[in-house]
Amino acid sequence: MNEAAYLTAEHLRVRLGGRVVLDDVSLSLPHRGFAALVGPNGAGKTTLLRALAGLLPAEGLVRIGDETVASLAIRERARRFAYLPQGPVVHWPLPVRDIVALGRYPHGAIDPSRLSPADADAVARAMQGTDIADLADRPVTELSGGERCRTMLARVLAVEAPVILADEPTASLDPHHQIEALHLLRRAAQASALVIVVTHDLGFAARFADTVLVLDRGRLVATGPPSSALAAAVLAEVFRVDAFRAERDGEPVIVPWSAR
Amino acid sequence: MENSDDTRYQGILKRPPGHAVLAGFERDTVRCVKRPTGVAPLIALGALAALLFLLSLGIGSVRLSPITVAQALLGGGSEEQRIIVQEIRLPRAILGLCIGAVLGLSGAALQGLLRNPLAAPSLFGAPQSAAFGAVVVIALGLADVRSFMLPLAAIAAAFVSVFLLLVVAGRNASLLLLILAGLAISSLAGAATALTMNLAPNPFAALEIAFWLLGSLEDRSFRHVLLALPFIALGAAVLMTERHAFRALALGEEAAQSLGVNVARLRLLVIAGVALGVGASVAVAGTISFIGLVAPHLMRPLVRHDPARLLVPSALAGSALLLTADIAVRIIPTNADSLRVGVLTAIIGVPFFLYLIVRERRSLGGGLA
Known about the structure:
The complex is a heterodimer of chains A (260) and B (369). By secondary structure, chain A is α/β, with parallel strands linked by helices. Chain A has 9 helices and 12 strands. Chain A has helices spanning 45-52, 74-80, 96-101, 117-129, 145-158, 175-192, 202-208, 226-229, 232-239; strands at residues 5-16, 19-30, 33-38, 59-64, 67-68, 81-84, 163-167, 194-198, 211-216, 219-224, 241-248, 251-259. Chain A has a 6-stranded mixed beta sheet with strand order 6-7-8-3-9-10, sandwiched between helices. A 4-stranded antiparallel beta sheet of chain A has the order 2-1-4-5, covered by helices on one side. In chain A, strand 1 (5-16) and strand 2 form a beta hairpin. In chain A, helix 4 runs antiparallel to helix 5 and helix 5 runs parallel beside helix 6 (175-192). The two termini of chain A are 32 Å apart. The model of chain A has no long low-confidence stretch (mean pLDDT 91). Chain B has 369 residues and is mainly α. Chain B is globular and about 65 Å long. At the A-B interface, helix 2, strand 6, helix 3, helix 4 and helix 6 of A face helix 2, helix 3, helix 12 and helix 13 of B.
């Protein structure tokens, strides 16, 4: 895990409205891979994601490669971190292609009708990868939930950032689209990125993640492969559940079964 | 299953060796579905505004044919005609064109910033506050009506009012909250203006002050054009340079921030741009409402709801609307004083606003955006 740490945080601490939301969080993640960030409600998962991306003021240090995130210019930072907020909304019925093209905004492509060939290629790749090329001209507000989710993922992939941060990308999706979206993110992770996904679904975390980060009341209480970070003791103590465990096709299955 | 996934997500999985060729092909497949909007509607709108501009030079107590207007503009015709066209009607038409444009632009920009089609300067109390700023300068005898103090005071007051509004309503305010806060601010500005009139040391000031209460373009000179135009141009330039950020804001402030938009700075720039445009307009023409609401609304389908590309058509439509209204007040017969253009835009604009509320009722009731 520690070989060639790419994204590291040292003693992160975030206060929101006088309350300590993140407390002394340190972590280290490699250049590529899929990390799941889990924890009970209010554990500070979203806050950690934002703090890593430099979207909110935090004490401590976040480094990406050999640079500190706080020292990056806003555009520069936007090229390193592609961020998918929770429950993404689109306020205007823009065509799908223009939404995806917003992923090139950090690269200076602020006008989607005037993309450079390189930017247009990145947009096309992202749309192809998420299987939405056919929807290019459709207003995003007219799409189904699954199509809209894929559009948002395409927007994030189009940034071609080394780090992708996704906050509950599968919430409000049906099972088919949940699995599809997670496959997509895992492919992106295998191809060229560090993907960190906030999720409440321990089963998905166990199955898809290389690394699981467990947050509890603002503190990182477990980090490691799913087998250790989602061990029975952690589930009992942090999530107050007992889980059903099994294996299918060589992948672990965890289903929270009873509340403690 | 793994296999079908492999082919399906190939696009991001691997970039094949012949990548450039393939990428070019992909681009075409995505690009061939082309946006319908081009320059043609813009040219049509521009032509309409130009036509209304010329029409505005010909209409009034003395009607002049388009040919006579053209002659007078170019220095021909009788001296009387030249004076009517060049000195009386030309400043009025220029102001109508520019004020209409910047009001349309301000409305589109505020709507882009707040991601809501019901946002407009006049609903947020900006013109009323600007009028108060101008009135204070006159009432206290700080400067006369032809001084640059006037637009500056109006701009400052408009800036404070919009800034205050966004602070009071909070960062992710629902439109309902914004409109309520806007109502409070316009009421306050109106009351403060009335109070200033009562307290004015100079009795003649009240007469001059009444001028700002309802907008009019009548009897404006090139001095007025000179007073307002630099600020209007600056405000328009500020709003235009920031327009592409509105598209990123369609994803919400947080996502826009993550894409590299400095949202706090953008908000200040938009407030400044709107204040410059609206403040300068009010300083020379009084409060003219609802152009900023109506113009972007009419133009939105034309640009397929793109909040960035909405700005230019909204400016042109704003010009056309205000010029039309200003022509109408010269045609509609009245008993005594001529009709004020601000009255006309409000009479048309308020029912339009109510209609928009009915249409957007569901999202308004939903509250949180």
